[in-house]
Write a structure and sequence with these properties.
single chain; 318 residues; 13 helices
Length: 318
């Protein structure tokens, strides 16, 4: 191992390039890592340690940073959730792994421990089928924007697409859907891995209605009608997030609802219907079955609740 004379914060741009070139992570993932590590850089500055070298980082520094995250309050007087704190720590742990891979002396990445329950059922937020239906029915479909929004919501729940995958859809992929009751297309997901996603008859029906209103030459499937950019009106990730939040409010469903909540809801519904984990893994594009197994915690809890309610033995005589 070699001691680097470059401060930790100066290594971060090279680390982000490393994520793209050697680990094949998407632009969106790189942006997230950059944002999470910015918090660590700000903390170093607060501690007057912005010039700290990799080999100077200690376990005590890691502990102090964890305390900082645990006690952090944002401008709206909200603390960081445990899950969000973990994202910041995972990014820092990945940076330490990068140092190891590049033979740069620093503390081992395993010095950053995450809570054992960081991926338990409490962090999986999903909607009931009744809530899903209310959300899908929220857009007013008597105008082109409402038709687009209904098609977006139906697509998210039908396919389990990640938000970045949804944004990347192009109208060319749907040019031959007339007369079809369903559709399957290939998308490029995390790590540039290609998988097949499936559109239900219902979701495809709303896409058809939406496309019947399109008379433009824009490449994107879902466009922003308020954009002033005449060359590319593709909806952004942030636009989709705001759209879903807005309709969650209209439908009076939980505040935590995001595009990813629909992905969780789709997977949970499939599992409740008896679909095996391996199949759900394929639907979601998870590279590791362990990632998919997170949904079993949700359904196991539901089964426990059902068992407790209907088979607790309370009414049995001794």
């Amino acid at each position: 191992m070699n001691q680097s004379n470059t401060p930790i914060v100066k290594h971060i741009p090279d680390f982000l390039d490393y994520l793209e070139i050697e680990r094949g992570l998407s632009d969106n993932t790189q942006k997230n890592y950059s944002r999470y590590l910015k918090k660590f850089s700000l903390w170093l500055k607060l501690k007057n340690k912005e010039n700290m070298l990799p080999h100077e980082l200690t376990p005590e520094d890691i502990w102090d940073y964890r305390l900082y995250l645990a006690r952090y309050i944002d401008n709206h007087n909200n603390p960081l959730s445990k899950l969000t704190q973990n994202y910041y720590l995972i990014a820092l742990r990945s940076l330490l792994s990068y140092f190891s891979d590049k033979d740069i002396q620093s503390i081992p990445s395993d010095k950053i421990k995450l809570p054992k329950d960081s991926h338990n059922e409490k962090n999986i937020k999903f909607l009931s089928l009744d809530q899903i239906e209310r959300l899908l029915m929220a857009p007013k479909t008597n105008n082109v924007q409402g038709l687009r929004d209904r098609a977006i919501l139906e697509t998210l729940f039908s396919t389990g697409l990640r938000i970045a995958e949804l944004v990347a859809l192009n109208i060319e992929q749907f040019k031959n859907i007339k007369g079809k009751d369903d559709l399957e297309i290939s998308v490029v997901g995390k790590g540039s891995h290609t998988r097949t996603v499936y559109f239900s008859e219902r979701a495809l029906g709303w896409i058809k209605k939406y496309l019947d209103t399109r008379e433009d030459d824009y490449k994107a499937l879902f466009i922003n009608y308020r954009s002033r950019n005449s060359s590319d009106k593709r909806l952004t990730v942030r636009s989709i997030e705001r759209l879903v939040k807005n309709y969650a409010t209209v439908a009076n469903i939980p505040y935590f609802t995001t595009p990813h909540t629909l992905r969780h809801s789709m997977a949970t519904d499939l599992l409740n219907q008896g679909v095996d984990l391996r199949t759900i893994q394929e639907f979601l594009g998870h590279r590791n079955i362990a990632t998919t197994q997170i949904y079993t915690h949700v359904t196991n809890k539901r089964l426990r609740d059902v068992h407790k309610q209907f088979h607790s033995g309370k009414d049995m005589k001794n």
